[in-house]
Structure formats: structure tokens, C-alpha cells
Predict the 3D structure of the following.
Amino acid sequence: MAEKPEHLSKKLFEGALLLTFAAILIKVLSAAYRIPYQNITGDIGFYIYQQVYPFYGIAVAFSTFGFPMIISKLIAERHSSRLTIKEIMLTSFVILSLVGLLLFGGLYFGADFIAGQMRDPELADLIQIIAFSFLLMPFISVVRGYYQGFHNMLPTAASQIFEQIVRISTILVFSFVLMQQGYSLYVVGAGAAFGSIAGGVTAVLVLVSFVGLRKDWKRVRQSKFGAKTFPVITRILLWQGLSFCIASLILVLMQLVDSMNLYMLLRKGGLGEIAAKEWKGVYDRGQPLIQLGTVVSNSIALSLVPLLSGYVQQKKRSEMISIIKMVLLISLMIGAAAAVGLICIMEPANYMLFTDNQGSAELAVLSVSIIFTSVIMAEASILQSLGHNLETILIVVTGIALKWLLNLVLVPHSLIMGASYATVISFFVMSLLFFAVLKKHLKQPLFDKQQLLILLQATILMGVLVWGFNGAINQVFEDMPSNRILAAFQALSGVLLGGCIFVAVILRRGMFTRRELEMLPVGTKLVKFLYR
């Protein structure tokens, strides 16, 4: 029996909220655990882990974003496409199993070659451990996609959350115990890599529990299977699945470029083996900062994307343009605030989080990326909602290639500062390309000049006051030896001060209308503050 439209809409809305909450929690956990991990293992230990992390990040993107989304879309549209559930499920499992085996074999048997390209042969064991993540990917993707296709987001959200909790707990416990027992940092790194497999197995077990508890898997057994649909489903799964993965892989692919050539280029720039690993580890401190800096903007912007997709399907152009402008403005606003605020408090934040302030200047430059990554994630999601997958892929590939080339040019002369410049320039170019393509398709201005002016005023005022506040703190405590408690007070006070100033300016200057504010997750509270 078909669900009533109002019941279905409510179910979709609740499911979107559940997945949004899970996504925010996972992104925060995924960024935050690296800080205690660096504190436990030091910069070289952090370098070792970060070298192999991008391979795990690719497996997660496949099993969380790309393939489940396409499988769920195929199942939800099965009546109009005349595909059966069994055809979709079996074909997806077979194809993803082949993809998983191919990637597993490439990483496991090519681990020595990859580690050799990284100029660090001891990383081979870690790469082989991470390779097992791709064997778990087919089952996780298919089951998540099945339930999402019937608008049941609980299995996906629960499996994601438990996967991350077990993974992070295993990583931190193993790293602490192995460090205490005097094992080498590469053995500690292998223990951390094993945490990723433990998390994946947990996701499988959680999903199996849902499969065992629910009766609706009879739908799969009772539906028919025709081999003629195999090429059709394969083409849709691989093409659209990979294109949906691209947006979520942007940060991971940038990290992969640095994993492949940054250590080698630091050695070429004159650093010794130990110094090059330490400075790569210092540079990698920027990755959780960028992730945390983009979590809020991405989550708020992406929560509006389903609404955008609905307007696209209904061909409501004016409403669609309004949502696109809103998504872009929010992404730019939060990205700019996070980037400028982090730059202003980088020294105390670096000391608070990572026990010293090495590389603060380079990390401050790298933090500029937050402005562009926030906008890029929104732009890519909008383009995909509009059906322009090929352009999304081409822009991302262009940005990754540019990052690789800029690393080759800048790092030997400027070391990790060169890598920071390469990252910022690459993200800047990608954001411009996305913007140009969007403007070409929509044929409308995407930003309001008055709103941009208010945003500029709020950002400058916040930056000046936070910078002055930090300067005053440094003057008062200039004779006091540095300690993490003082650094924490300085950094967190700066965040609180900057946040209050920024929000007050954009609200009081009328950057958003009442209707626009009410569309945001906390908008009703902001409206009360603004209009009381």
C-alpha cells in the first residue's frame, strides 16, 4: 500500500534530520580525535597516520555517500524505471564487490610500490591493513542504500555513528598502550590503521542486526531478476555513484596529493629524514582544523539541498534561485568567519591543541582554505542537484592536478609554507571554476552586493577586535612561561568574543530577512533575538 504524501514528506524530513545530525557528529569526531592522537604519538606519529588516512577516507566516501545514495535512488524510482529490488540489489552487490576487490588488490599487493612512491617503505604494512576497508564496502553500501531507498535512515545513521565510535576508541586505546609499551611509531600507526577495520566490522554488525530484525527483506526475495538490466544498473551505479563521491572526496584527495609527494619534496628542499617527517606532521595539524572549520557551514548548507532538489524537480525556478543564493551565502559567511577567526588565534590554538606552536604561520595561511572549501562543498552539491555531474568531476580533477603541480614548484623552495600556498591557491581556483559554471547555467547574480558588504564589515571588525584582544593578552602575560591552560583561555576567549561580534553585526545590519532566518536550523531563535 502506497504511503500518503504527507506521511512520506514527514518521513523524508525526519530522515534528513537524522542523517544531518549523524553527519555533523561524525565529522566532529573524525576531526577531533586526531588532536589527542597527535598528543600521544607526536608529530612523526601523526605524519605516519596521515600518510595512509586518505585511502581509508576514500573507502568511507564510497560506502557512506556515493554508492548508498545511488542505490537508494534506484530503489525509490524502481516503479518508473521498471527495475526490481532484486535486480538493483544483486547487480549493485556484484559490481561493488568487483570494485572492492580491485581496490583491495591494488592497495594490498601494491603497498610496497605505493610506500616506495611516498619514499617511506615502512608505510607498506599500514597500507595493507587499510586495504581491507574496501572488502567491507560492498555490503555496507548495499544495505545502507536499501534502507535509504525506503526512507528509513536509522540503519545508516546508527551504523555510521557506531563505526566512528569504535574506530576512534580503538585508535586512541591502541596508540596509548603501544606507546606505553615502547613499540615503534610505525607499529603504533598499524594499530591505528587496524582501528579503521574494527570500525568497518562494527558497521557491518550493526547493519546485520537491522537485516535480522526486519521482515521487509522479503521484498528482495520475492521480486524478479532479469539479466538484461545488469548493464543499465551498472552504468548508473558507477557513473553517478562516483560523481556523488567526488564532492565528499575533495579534502581527502588533497590530503592524498600531500601524502604522495610532500615528504619527498621536503627532503628535496634540504630537510633530513626525521625533520621532513616532523614538518609533514606539523603541516598535517591543519587537516582537522580545516575539517572542523567547514563542519557547520557544510551541515547548514547541505540541510537546504533536499529543499533545493525538490524545487528543481517541481521546476520552481525563483524558489530554486533563492535557495541557491542562501546556501552560497551561508557557506561563504561561516567559512569567512571561521578562517579569519582561526588565523587571529592560531598561535594559542596551536599550543592548546598540539602542545607547541610550531608551524603557526604556515597553519594560519592554510586556514584561508576554509573560506574556499566551505563554498566549494556547497557549489558542488548545488551543481549535482542540478544534474551537472561531469562538470563537477572535471573541476575537482583540475584542482587536484593544480595542487600536485604547485607542490612540485613551491615546496622545495618554501617547504610547508609552499604546501600551504599550493592548497589555498588550488581551492581558490576550484571555487572560482564552480562559481563560473553555476553562473553560466543559472544566468543570474548569485550574491547580493549589500549582503557581501555587511559580511565584509562583520569579518573585518571581528578580525581586528580578536587580533587586538590576543595582542593585549600577550602583553599582559609576556613574562609568564607558555602553558596550555593559558593558551586554551586565550584561544577560547577569542572564539567567544569573535563569534559574538560577528553574529551581532550580521543580524543588526540586516544581512538576512526574517523569512531567510526562519529557514535555518536555529533561525527561529535568532529571529526572536532580532525582532523582540
User: Anything to note?
Assistant: DSSP finds 22 helices and no strands in the chain.
